Amino acid sequence: MILKLVTLGLALSVTTGASYADEDQIRIVGSSTVYPFSTVVAERFGRNTPYKTPIIESTGTGGGFKLFCAGNGVNTPSVSNASRAVKSSEVALCAKNGVKDIIEVKVGYDGIVMANARNAFDYSFSTRDIFLALAEQVPGPDGALVKNTARTWKDVNSALPNTKIEVLGPPPTSGTRDAFVELAMESGCKTFPNIKALKKTDKKAYKKICHSIREDHAFIEAGENDNLIVQRLRANPDALGIFGFSFLDQNSDTVKAAKINGVQATFENISDGSYPISRPLFFYVKAAHLNKVDGLGEFVAEFVSDKATGEDGYLSERGLIPMSSDERHTLNSKVLDAVSK
Asked: pTM score, two decimals?
Protein backbone atom coordinates (compact mmCIF):
# COMPACT_ATOMS: atom_id res chain seq x y z
CA MET A 1 0.00 0.00 0.00
CA ILE A 2 1.46 3.48 0.28
CA LEU A 3 5.19 3.30 0.61
CA LYS A 4 7.18 6.16 1.96
CA LEU A 5 10.72 5.45 3.04
CA VAL A 6 11.63 8.43 5.20
CA THR A 7 15.34 9.00 5.78
CA LEU A 8 15.48 11.02 8.91
CA GLY A 9 19.14 11.91 9.34
CA LEU A 10 21.59 11.59 12.22
CA ALA A 11 20.48 11.43 15.81
CA LEU A 12 21.35 9.76 19.08
CA SER A 13 19.50 6.65 20.22
CA VAL A 14 17.75 6.67 23.56
CA THR A 15 16.40 3.91 25.75
CA THR A 16 12.93 3.60 27.22
CA GLY A 17 11.95 2.59 30.69
CA ALA A 18 9.72 -0.26 29.56
CA SER A 19 10.77 -3.68 28.28
CA TYR A 20 8.74 -4.84 25.32
CA ALA A 21 8.90 -7.67 22.82
CA ASP A 22 11.96 -9.77 22.13
CA GLU A 23 13.44 -10.56 18.72
CA ASP A 24 10.99 -13.45 18.28
CA GLN A 25 7.78 -11.49 18.80
CA ILE A 26 6.40 -8.47 16.99
CA ARG A 27 5.16 -5.57 19.11
CA ILE A 28 2.50 -3.21 17.74
CA VAL A 29 1.09 -0.01 19.26
CA GLY A 30 -1.10 2.87 18.11
CA SER A 31 -4.55 3.66 16.78
CA SER A 32 -7.68 2.28 18.44
CA THR A 33 -9.37 2.44 15.01
CA VAL A 34 -6.77 0.24 13.31
CA TYR A 35 -6.46 -1.99 16.41
CA PRO A 36 -9.32 -4.40 15.56
CA PHE A 37 -8.04 -4.88 12.01
CA SER A 38 -4.49 -5.41 13.22
CA THR A 39 -5.72 -7.88 15.84
CA VAL A 40 -7.51 -10.02 13.25
CA VAL A 41 -4.40 -10.13 11.06
CA ALA A 42 -2.20 -10.94 14.07
CA GLU A 43 -4.44 -13.80 15.20
CA ARG A 44 -4.44 -15.38 11.73
CA PHE A 45 -0.71 -14.81 11.43
CA GLY A 46 -0.08 -16.58 14.76
CA ARG A 47 -2.27 -19.54 13.77
CA ASN A 48 -0.98 -20.03 10.24
CA THR A 49 2.76 -19.33 10.49
CA PRO A 50 5.61 -20.59 12.70
CA TYR A 51 5.88 -17.15 14.32
CA LYS A 52 4.40 -15.98 17.60
CA THR A 53 1.19 -13.96 17.55
CA PRO A 54 2.15 -10.26 17.67
CA ILE A 55 1.46 -8.28 20.85
CA ILE A 56 -0.84 -5.31 20.14
CA GLU A 57 -1.71 -2.36 22.36
CA SER A 58 -4.35 0.28 21.66
CA THR A 59 -2.54 3.45 22.73
CA GLY A 60 -4.01 5.98 20.31
CA THR A 61 -2.17 7.19 17.23
CA GLY A 62 -0.21 9.94 18.99
CA GLY A 63 0.70 7.71 21.93
CA GLY A 64 1.78 4.99 19.53
CA PHE A 65 4.18 7.24 17.68
CA LYS A 66 5.82 8.31 20.97
CA LEU A 67 6.56 4.67 21.76
CA PHE A 68 7.49 3.77 18.18
CA CYS A 69 9.91 6.69 17.85
CA ALA A 70 11.71 6.02 21.14
CA GLY A 71 14.56 4.18 19.41
CA ASN A 72 15.55 1.20 17.24
CA GLY A 73 16.15 -1.35 20.00
CA VAL A 74 14.03 -4.50 20.07
CA ASN A 75 12.57 -3.21 23.34
CA THR A 76 10.66 -0.66 21.23
CA PRO A 77 7.62 -1.38 19.01
CA SER A 78 8.20 -2.52 15.45
CA VAL A 79 4.86 -1.23 14.13
CA SER A 80 2.66 1.77 14.91
CA ASN A 81 -0.96 1.75 13.74
CA ALA A 82 -2.29 5.16 12.72
CA SER A 83 -5.69 6.60 11.81
CA ARG A 84 -3.94 9.56 10.17
CA ALA A 85 -0.62 10.15 8.44
CA VAL A 86 2.47 10.67 10.58
CA LYS A 87 3.08 14.32 11.53
CA SER A 88 6.31 16.17 10.78
CA SER A 89 6.81 16.59 14.54
CA GLU A 90 6.63 12.81 14.94
CA VAL A 91 9.09 12.31 12.11
CA ALA A 92 11.40 14.72 13.94
CA LEU A 93 10.99 12.75 17.19
CA CYS A 94 11.95 9.55 15.38
CA ALA A 95 14.97 11.33 13.89
CA LYS A 96 16.06 12.59 17.29
CA ASN A 97 16.09 9.01 18.57
CA GLY A 98 17.81 7.42 15.61
CA VAL A 99 14.80 5.93 13.82
CA LYS A 100 15.90 6.81 10.31
CA ASP A 101 13.81 4.67 7.99
CA ILE A 102 10.06 4.21 8.25
CA ILE A 103 7.81 2.33 5.84
CA GLU A 104 4.35 3.87 5.59
CA VAL A 105 1.64 1.36 4.68
CA LYS A 106 -1.84 2.47 3.67
CA VAL A 107 -4.36 -0.29 4.36
CA GLY A 108 -7.69 1.22 3.33
CA TYR A 109 -10.25 3.84 4.31
CA ASP A 110 -12.54 4.54 7.23
CA GLY A 111 -15.32 6.97 8.01
CA ILE A 112 -15.74 8.79 11.31
CA VAL A 113 -19.32 8.71 12.54
CA MET A 114 -21.41 10.60 15.06
CA ALA A 115 -23.66 7.87 16.36
CA ASN A 116 -26.38 7.39 18.94
CA ALA A 117 -28.63 4.60 20.21
CA ARG A 118 -30.89 2.98 17.59
CA ASN A 119 -34.03 3.93 19.50
CA ALA A 120 -33.00 7.60 19.77
CA PHE A 121 -33.52 10.61 17.49
CA ASP A 122 -32.47 10.39 13.82
CA TYR A 123 -29.91 13.17 13.53
CA SER A 124 -28.77 14.91 10.38
CA PHE A 125 -25.96 17.40 10.94
CA SER A 126 -24.13 19.80 8.71
CA THR A 127 -20.45 20.31 9.47
CA ARG A 128 -21.49 23.87 10.40
CA ASP A 129 -23.80 22.40 13.07
CA ILE A 130 -20.93 20.31 14.41
CA PHE A 131 -18.62 23.32 14.64
CA LEU A 132 -21.26 25.47 16.35
CA ALA A 133 -21.98 22.70 18.85
CA LEU A 134 -18.44 21.69 19.78
CA ALA A 135 -16.07 24.62 19.12
CA GLU A 136 -14.58 26.52 22.04
CA GLN A 137 -15.40 29.86 20.37
CA VAL A 138 -18.08 30.64 17.78
CA PRO A 139 -19.22 33.77 15.96
CA GLY A 140 -21.70 35.85 17.96
CA PRO A 141 -24.64 37.88 16.56
CA ASP A 142 -22.29 40.64 15.38
CA GLY A 143 -19.77 38.19 13.92
CA ALA A 144 -17.23 38.61 16.71
CA LEU A 145 -15.99 35.44 18.39
CA VAL A 146 -17.56 34.60 21.73
CA LYS A 147 -17.35 31.67 24.12
CA ASN A 148 -19.63 28.85 23.03
CA THR A 149 -22.68 28.77 25.32
CA ALA A 150 -24.94 26.50 23.26
CA ARG A 151 -26.54 23.97 25.59
CA THR A 152 -28.92 22.10 23.29
CA TRP A 153 -28.86 21.05 19.66
CA LYS A 154 -31.79 23.43 19.09
CA ASP A 155 -29.50 26.31 20.17
CA VAL A 156 -27.27 25.34 17.25
CA ASN A 157 -29.95 24.76 14.63
CA SER A 158 -33.69 25.30 15.14
CA ALA A 159 -34.38 22.18 13.07
CA LEU A 160 -32.62 20.01 15.66
CA PRO A 161 -34.22 18.78 18.90
CA ASN A 162 -34.15 20.54 22.24
CA THR A 163 -31.75 17.92 23.59
CA LYS A 164 -28.64 18.60 25.65
CA ILE A 165 -25.40 18.56 23.65
CA GLU A 166 -23.50 15.58 25.01
CA VAL A 167 -20.87 14.10 22.70
CA LEU A 168 -18.50 11.32 23.76
CA GLY A 169 -15.25 11.43 21.82
CA PRO A 170 -11.58 10.51 21.74
CA PRO A 171 -8.75 12.33 23.57
CA PRO A 172 -6.10 14.56 21.95
CA THR A 173 -3.73 11.59 21.50
CA SER A 174 -6.19 9.98 19.10
CA GLY A 175 -5.82 10.07 15.33
CA THR A 176 -9.62 9.91 15.14
CA ARG A 177 -9.75 13.17 17.11
CA ASP A 178 -7.19 14.76 14.76
CA ALA A 179 -9.14 13.67 11.70
CA PHE A 180 -12.48 14.74 13.17
CA VAL A 181 -11.36 18.30 13.93
CA GLU A 182 -9.81 18.63 10.48
CA LEU A 183 -12.59 17.06 8.42
CA ALA A 184 -15.68 18.03 10.43
CA MET A 185 -14.86 20.98 12.70
CA GLU A 186 -12.67 22.86 10.24
CA SER A 187 -15.09 22.19 7.40
CA GLY A 188 -17.88 23.81 9.43
CA CYS A 189 -15.61 26.59 10.61
CA LYS A 190 -14.83 27.58 7.00
CA THR A 191 -18.51 28.26 6.31
CA PHE A 192 -17.99 31.58 8.12
CA PRO A 193 -16.29 33.87 5.56
CA ASN A 194 -14.46 36.04 8.11
CA ILE A 195 -12.87 32.99 9.75
CA LYS A 196 -12.04 31.41 6.38
CA ALA A 197 -10.29 34.64 5.34
CA LEU A 198 -8.17 34.48 8.49
CA LYS A 199 -6.40 31.39 7.12
CA LYS A 200 -4.52 33.62 4.65
CA THR A 201 -3.46 36.22 7.20
CA ASP A 202 -2.99 34.31 10.46
CA LYS A 203 -2.91 30.52 10.09
CA LYS A 204 -2.17 29.97 13.77
CA ALA A 205 -5.23 31.93 14.89
CA TYR A 206 -7.35 30.25 12.21
CA LYS A 207 -6.32 26.77 13.37
CA LYS A 208 -6.95 27.61 17.02
CA ILE A 209 -10.49 28.77 16.24
CA CYS A 210 -11.35 25.84 13.97
CA HIS A 211 -9.66 23.03 15.91
CA SER A 212 -10.30 23.94 19.57
CA ILE A 213 -13.01 21.80 21.18
CA ARG A 214 -14.97 23.21 24.11
CA GLU A 215 -14.09 21.98 27.60
CA ASP A 216 -17.35 22.57 29.48
CA HIS A 217 -18.61 18.96 29.33
CA ALA A 218 -20.59 19.27 26.10
CA PHE A 219 -17.72 17.23 24.64
CA ILE A 220 -16.63 14.42 26.95
CA GLU A 221 -13.28 12.71 26.45
CA ALA A 222 -14.12 9.02 26.66
CA GLY A 223 -10.69 7.44 26.19
CA GLU A 224 -9.21 5.35 23.39
CA ASN A 225 -11.58 2.38 23.74
CA ASP A 226 -14.31 2.90 21.15
CA ASN A 227 -16.24 -0.14 22.40
CA LEU A 228 -16.76 1.67 25.71
CA ILE A 229 -18.29 4.63 23.87
CA VAL A 230 -20.69 2.26 22.12
CA GLN A 231 -21.68 0.78 25.48
CA ARG A 232 -22.32 4.25 26.95
CA LEU A 233 -24.56 5.18 24.01
CA ARG A 234 -26.70 2.15 24.69
CA ALA A 235 -27.20 3.39 28.24
CA ASN A 236 -27.81 7.04 27.36
CA PRO A 237 -30.10 7.68 24.35
CA ASP A 238 -29.49 11.45 24.51
CA ALA A 239 -25.73 11.15 23.95
CA LEU A 240 -23.80 10.89 20.70
CA GLY A 241 -20.41 9.27 20.21
CA ILE A 242 -17.55 9.82 17.78
CA PHE A 243 -15.73 6.72 16.49
CA GLY A 244 -14.72 4.84 13.36
CA PHE A 245 -17.18 3.27 10.91
CA SER A 246 -15.95 -0.24 11.71
CA PHE A 247 -17.33 0.06 15.26
CA LEU A 248 -20.68 1.21 13.85
CA ASP A 249 -20.64 -1.72 11.43
CA GLN A 250 -19.96 -4.20 14.22
CA ASN A 251 -22.65 -2.72 16.49
CA SER A 252 -25.36 -1.79 13.98
CA ASP A 253 -27.96 -3.66 16.01
CA THR A 254 -27.68 -1.10 18.84
CA VAL A 255 -26.28 2.16 17.38
CA LYS A 256 -26.85 4.23 14.24
CA ALA A 257 -25.01 7.10 12.57
CA ALA A 258 -26.19 10.63 11.88
CA LYS A 259 -26.16 11.90 8.32
CA ILE A 260 -23.43 14.48 7.70
CA ASN A 261 -24.18 17.16 5.10
CA GLY A 262 -27.08 14.97 4.02
CA VAL A 263 -24.91 11.90 3.36
CA GLN A 264 -25.28 8.65 5.28
CA ALA A 265 -22.20 6.82 6.56
CA THR A 266 -22.18 3.67 4.44
CA PHE A 267 -19.50 1.41 3.00
CA GLU A 268 -20.20 2.77 -0.49
CA ASN A 269 -20.31 6.47 0.46
CA ILE A 270 -17.03 6.24 2.35
CA SER A 271 -15.40 4.29 -0.47
CA ASP A 272 -16.34 6.84 -3.14
CA GLY A 273 -15.50 9.85 -0.95
CA SER A 274 -19.00 11.32 -0.84
CA TYR A 275 -19.26 10.94 2.94
CA PRO A 276 -17.59 14.09 4.31
CA ILE A 277 -15.71 12.60 7.28
CA SER A 278 -13.64 9.92 5.55
CA ARG A 279 -9.93 9.26 6.02
CA PRO A 280 -7.23 6.73 5.07
CA LEU A 281 -5.81 4.29 7.62
CA PHE A 282 -2.14 3.36 7.95
CA PHE A 283 0.45 1.44 9.83
CA TYR A 284 4.15 2.30 10.02
CA VAL A 285 6.99 -0.22 10.10
CA LYS A 286 10.43 0.34 11.57
CA ALA A 287 12.75 -0.69 8.73
CA ALA A 288 15.61 -1.37 11.17
CA HIS A 289 13.51 -4.15 12.75
CA LEU A 290 12.98 -6.13 9.54
CA ASN A 291 16.24 -8.01 10.12
CA LYS A 292 15.91 -8.02 13.91
CA VAL A 293 12.36 -9.13 14.74
CA ASP A 294 11.28 -12.57 13.53
CA GLY A 295 8.39 -12.63 11.09
CA LEU A 296 8.00 -8.85 10.72
CA GLY A 297 8.25 -8.87 6.92
CA GLU A 298 5.89 -11.83 6.73
CA PHE A 299 3.37 -10.05 8.97
CA VAL A 300 3.41 -6.98 6.70
CA ALA A 301 2.92 -9.24 3.66
CA GLU A 302 -0.12 -10.84 5.32
CA PHE A 303 -1.64 -7.45 6.21
CA VAL A 304 -1.34 -6.08 2.66
CA SER A 305 -2.44 -9.28 0.93
CA ASP A 306 -5.61 -9.36 -1.17
CA LYS A 307 -7.06 -11.98 1.18
CA ALA A 308 -6.81 -9.45 4.04
CA THR A 309 -7.38 -5.98 2.56
CA GLY A 310 -8.84 -6.82 -0.84
CA GLU A 311 -12.40 -6.05 -1.87
CA ASP A 312 -13.53 -9.45 -0.60
CA GLY A 313 -10.86 -9.70 2.08
CA TYR A 314 -11.51 -10.79 5.62
CA LEU A 315 -10.94 -7.25 6.95
CA SER A 316 -13.80 -5.86 4.85
CA GLU A 317 -16.06 -8.14 6.90
CA ARG A 318 -14.85 -6.18 9.95
CA GLY A 319 -15.66 -2.78 8.44
CA LEU A 320 -12.45 -1.81 6.62
CA ILE A 321 -13.18 0.09 3.39
CA PRO A 322 -10.79 -1.34 0.76
CA MET A 323 -8.82 0.70 -1.72
CA SER A 324 -9.50 0.20 -5.41
CA SER A 325 -7.81 -2.81 -6.96
CA ASP A 326 -5.41 -0.63 -8.97
CA GLU A 327 -4.39 1.50 -6.00
CA ARG A 328 -4.00 -1.52 -3.75
CA HIS A 329 -1.83 -3.49 -6.15
CA THR A 330 0.37 -0.51 -7.05
CA LEU A 331 1.07 0.28 -3.42
CA ASN A 332 1.34 -3.36 -2.39
CA SER A 333 4.20 -4.02 -4.76
CA LYS A 334 6.20 -1.09 -3.38
CA VAL A 335 5.70 -2.17 0.22
CA LEU A 336 6.61 -5.78 -0.50
CA ASP A 337 9.75 -4.66 -2.31
CA ALA A 338 10.74 -2.58 0.69
CA VAL A 339 10.23 -5.30 3.31
CA SER A 340 12.04 -7.94 1.23
CA LYS A 341 15.27 -5.95 0.94
From this structure: 0.82
